[in-house]
Amino acid sequence: MRIAEQLGPETPTSPFPLKLAGPVAHGFKRGSKELGIPTANLPECTAQQASATIDTGIYYGWASVGSDEQIYPMVMSYGWNPYYKNTIRTAEVHIIHDFKHDFYNEQLRVIVAGFIRPELNYSSLDDLIADIKLDIECAELSLQRPEYQKLKLDTSLKPE
Ligand code: ADP
Ligand code: RBF
Ligand code: MG
């Protein structure tokens, strides 16, 4: 099993920080039900835009939602979800916070700050879940660094 031991550069390095936004879209509903890890899906056109800048993979950064001023750490899965053999590329953001309600259609603002790993296929759901938990740990550690904390001040994360 992979271990999230590599934190990457001390400073966000090109193409990061990458800003993405859009109203939260509906997906296949597997995140909450099958994985216990909900992912707020960015609209297809936003995912399309990202393809000009980043490869598929797992990323970390910051996020905010709707009129909420709070800025949360996030992990983003960008790609084909090989475990599920999807035919469309999705940008899915798991916000590292326990929300009491869904927020479909609300504006999701994201700053992607760094890369964690490529997308992988798994022989079991448990292995996928275990890796996502490592991704979350990796994101939390990476985002503690001062140059990554500064990104929280970016105006693109503020509600309109
Ligand atoms: P879908 O396939 O429609 O994306 P998911 O099972 O992945 O469904 O659940 C995602 C939804 O759960 C989000 O759109 C959002 O409304 C809600 N949600 C609740 N908590 C979170 C969270 N911490 N991170 C992301 N989405 C969350
Ligand atoms: N799906 C995969 O098939 N392979 C992966 O390596 C993978 N990594 C993920 C990492 C994170 C941090 C998250 C939030 C999701 C990941 N998923 C991965 C996506 C998962 O399959 C997807 O969230 C569900 O299909 C629900 O839409
Ligand atoms: Mg989802």
Please tell me about this protein's structure.
It is a single chain. By secondary structure, the chain is α+β, with helices and mostly antiparallel strands. 22% of the residues lie in helices and 26% in strands. The protein is built from four helices and six strands. A six-stranded antiparallel beta sheet has the order 1-6-3-4-5-2, with helices on both faces. Strand 3 and strand 4 (72-79) form a beta hairpin. The longest helix is centred in the C-terminal third of the chain and has 19 residues, at 125-143. It binds adenosine-5'-diphosphate, riboflavin and magnesium ion. Adenosine-5'-diphosphate binds next to helix 1, strand 2 and strand 5.
Layout of secondary structure:
Elements: E1 18-23, H1 30-35, E2 40-41, H2 44-50, E3 57-65, E4 72-79, E5 90-95, E6 107-117, H3 125-143, H4 146-149
The structure holds adenosine-5'-diphosphate, riboflavin and magnesium ion (MG).
Riboflavin binds next to helix 1, strand 4, strand 5 and helix 3.
Strand order of the largest sheet: 1-6-3-4-5-2
The CA-CA distance between the termini, in Å, is 42 Å
- β-strand amount: 25-35%
Q: Biggest sheet: strands, sense, closure?
A: 6 strands, antiparallel
The general outline is: globular
Topology as H/E string? EHEHEEEEHH
